[in-house]
Amino acid sequence: MKRALVAVALALLALAVPPRAFAQSQSTGPVTFHASTGTATDDLDVQVDVAGPVIQILTPVAGSVIGGTSTTINGTVNDFADFDGAMPGNTFQSATWALSDVQLGVRVLSGTVPVVDGHFTIPDLPLVIGFNAVTVSATDAVGFAGSNVTFFQVDPNAPAAALSNFHDGQATLFQNVPIDIDFAAPTTIVSVNGVADGRSFPAGLASDVLDESLEFGTNTFELALQAAERRRRSRSRSTASNPPTPSRSRARRTRRW
Predict the structure, then answer these.
(1) Which candidate, 93, 206, 102, places its Cα nearest to that of 149?
(2) Kind of pairing, strands 65-66 and 145-154?
(3) Residue 175's Cα: distance from chain center in Å?
(4) Beta strands in the chain (DSSP E)
(5) How far is CA 140 from the centre of its chain?
(6) Could you say which DSSP state residue 19 is in?
(7) For 43-94, how does the pLDDT look when each residue is reduced to its tens digit (9 = 90+)?
(8) Which H or E run includes 10?
(9) 228 and 247 in contact (C-beta within 8 Å)?
(10) Which of 9, 129, 139, 246 has its CA 20 to 30 A from that of 213?
């Protein structure tokens, strides 16, 4: 009899207590849980993270052609990238990286790199001749993982600078055409058509290096370059800027196209 009464009491209690409500957030950001019973109330502030880390590899740019046997990888690692508010954006201490030989499909090197204020640098990374792939990965405090990969080519015979989105002598219908240049090594443009420049670029592909106004007919550009303690001068006749001679001599040379 007592067991029957207990069972009935529990059943009535279950009906009297409302079921618990669960909320699932679909976006990153702060969430406040509010609880109250009678005159007592309490709030709990939590931060919701439903997104993995966002990794950007800044240099070398994907598709670059590098002339040396090593290069420096630069990039950023951020979290909560889709939330515009007072959330921590750079909470990472380190990231992992791996270098792969694309032709052979094998991993060549791997390691860990410190992340400082959301930025990382892998200095003087030895490369393989041909196509390389560098993958950078990170895991946030929740356990979400993110990664990014960049592909580039190593060619010991690559010219010091080469046109990327145009070729020498190419015709164009536009008077203003941004020119991309692939630098085989870290390079400083000393001057363009005799006008002092001074901009420096890391090894690899650089966008919008030249944005000169073109004249009707043939346009000639002369670039004086300084790269890896070597100074080169090149002249070319083109609708775009033109690559200097690939010679490795320290002497200043002139070449026409």
Answers:
(1) 102
(2) parallel
(3) 31
(4) 29-37, 40-48, 54-59, 65-66, 70-78, 94-101, 106-114, 119-126, 130-139, 145-154, 161-163, 179-183, 187-192, 195-196, 200-201, 204-210, 220-227, 230-237
(5) 18
(6) P
(7) 666 556 667 789 999 999 999 999 989 999 999 998 764 455 544 555 788 9
(8) helix 2-16
(9) no
(10) 246
- The one-letter amino acid code at 161 reads A
* Selected residue with higher pLDDT from 172 and 9: 172
User: Is residue 143 within 8 Å of 55, Cβ to Cβ?
Assistant: no
The amino acid at 60 = P
DSSP 195: E
Q: What's the first-to-final CA gap in the chain, in angstroms? A: 106
By the 8 A CB rule, do 10 and 33 touch?
no
Distance CA 125, CA 218 (A): 41
DSSP H or E stretch at residue 193? none
pLDDT 10s digits, 98-139: 999 999 999 999 999 999 988 999 999 999 999 999 999 998
